[in-house]
Amino acid sequence: MARYGMVIDTTRCVGCMDCVVACATENDVPHGYCRDWITTEVSGTYPNLRMEIRSERCNHCDNPPCVSCCPTGASHVSDFGKIVLTDPAKCIGCKACVASCPYGARFVHPDGYASKCTFCEHRVKEGKDPACVSVCPTRCMHFGDLDDPKSLVNQLLQSRKAKTLLPEAGTKPRIYYLV
Amino acid sequence: MLEITTTRHNPLVDPVLAVWSWEIPVYLFIGGIVAGLMVLAGFNLLRLARGDDPRRFFSLQAPILALVLLSAGMGALFLDLAHKLYVWRVYLAFEPSSPMSWGSWILLIVYPVLIVSALIRLDASWPWLGARLPAIRRASDALLAQPGLLRAIAWTNIVVGIGVGIYTGILLSTMVARPLWNSAVLGPLFLFSGLSAGAALLHLAARIVPSGPAPTGLIGGAFASLVQRLGPSSPEPRTADAIQRADLAFIAIEMALILLLLIGLLSAGAAQIEAAKLLVAGPYAWAFWGGIVGAGLVLPMVLQALELGHRIPHTVVPAVLVLAGGFALRWVMVVAGQHSSLIQMAGN
Questions:
Q1: What's the ipTM?
Q2: A156 touches chain B (CB under 8 A)
Q3: Residue A57's closest chain B neighbor by CA?
Q4: Do B348 and A69 touch (CB under 8 A)?
């Protein structure tokens, strides 16, 4: 079975937020909430500055703290592609998963259950890319099976220098950023 | 320089995490008191099993008080849930890696332990009920007749009480994402804070309840059964002093544990140091130094030491301060803990 992940090229991303809009539209994300967002990081000392723009979302960690802290099993790793999902019918809204995520990727849906990025599981099952990936005008985002050595995401990770966010948390995130 | 901007704007997550409001601190505070009452009641049950006259000391009613408080605490926990109608889902699963799942099941053990413990003196402390439900009187007599059983109940109270007390801290401490909580010291710290608050509550009850025979009716008797000492005689001064002396020890241990918590954080990584700064110098410094350390630990410690030395008259002030400090500890830890996070450091 696949183990889905993303590789995002920060040198191509312009922060247009198409991915954010596409996600909100595709997944009917309630107004005022977001499942993905743009982070802009400026580092250095003037005039030697460097800017990195990242499209961020749930990292679908291999070691997800939101799953291990869930008291009901609502937060789970799906058999399909090892995607980290929440089952609203099991969620009691205790918010432990929201507090446990180092990336702030989760939120409480106005209907009361925990919500977040699903890697557009419904689209992936139809053989499509997640909505955010499919609309990116700079083609900086790539989605695929990290367990398949021939997949595009693995080829990019082999040929380019990549990083993950907060690796020190030990969550083993599966969103890679090319730098 | 490192400047990070984000377009994320999720309610209760940004700009700082605030998913847990007053309900969780209230639940952790009450859970701590229940844990403390169970341990103290356990030790008093051991005295009862030894054959001491139960009318000469109080806190045997502690299990009844603990039952009422625990239910109030679980009420607060329920109010915190955002998906309330699905609460029963907790009891359709046991998730070994989830402290919240452990806690939910432990609470199911606590209730029967407290009910059996409460039965021991329920007849004597609430005669109205005993007269109408002879089964309660029979259960009470049966339990009192067997010192071995009383000892078993006593030790169950002590062990389960310690478990509940530590659990209220472990609930928070397993989250790597929140550096302020990510310390094993939190378990013992909340346990000893709970012991201290439990002792303070008994002390307070003994002071504010009028002396003389307890009311025996339906309503008055029910209230009296929570806090009233049994029988016409006052508790021995030795017993009252013993509770205060125990509280002094609990406060001293609590101070040491808070110191260890801070040392642990300040000697760890950048995120932990930033988390500790929230308490000692940041937005929560006034509540930490003024509420938790000053008014909640140092002041009641000094006052209780002076009272025990007969230098000042006994008052309810230290007990009230200990209880307020115990709540401040839970409130500050829950709110500041959500504020703390793993942070990206400037690489250049």
A1: 0.94
A2: no
A3: B8
A4: no
Q: How far is A165 from chain B (nearest CA, A)?
A: 8
Whether the CB-CB separation of B64 and B226 falls below 8 Å is answered with yes
Whether the CB of B89 is below 8 Å from some CB of chain A: the reply is yes
Q: How far apart are CA B158 and CA B195, in angstroms?
A: 11
Fold for B23-339, please state it: Formate dehydrogenase/DMSO reductase fold (1.20.1630)
B81 closest CB neighbour out of A41, A43, A93:
A93
Q: Give me the total of CB pairs closer than 8 Å, taking one residue from chain A and one from chain B.
A: 159
Partners of residue A108 in chain B, C-beta under 8 Å: 11-12, 19, 82
Give the Cβ contact number of residue A69 at 10 Å. Answer: 25
Strands B2-6 and A141-145: unpaired
pTM above 0.90, yes or no: yes
Q: Both tokens of residue B147? A: 């010192």
The domains of chain A are located at: 4-178
The CATH class of A4-178 is: alpha beta
Q: pLDDT digit of tens for each residue in chain A (179 aa)? A: 899 999 999 999 999 999 999 999 999 999 999 999 999 999 999 999 999 999 999 999 999 999 999 999 999 999 999 999 999 999 999 999 999 999 999 999 999 999 999 999 999 999 999 999 999 999 999 999 999 999 999 999 999 999 999 999 999 999 999 99
3-state secondary structure of A1: coil
- What letter does residue A29 receive in the DSSP assignment? P
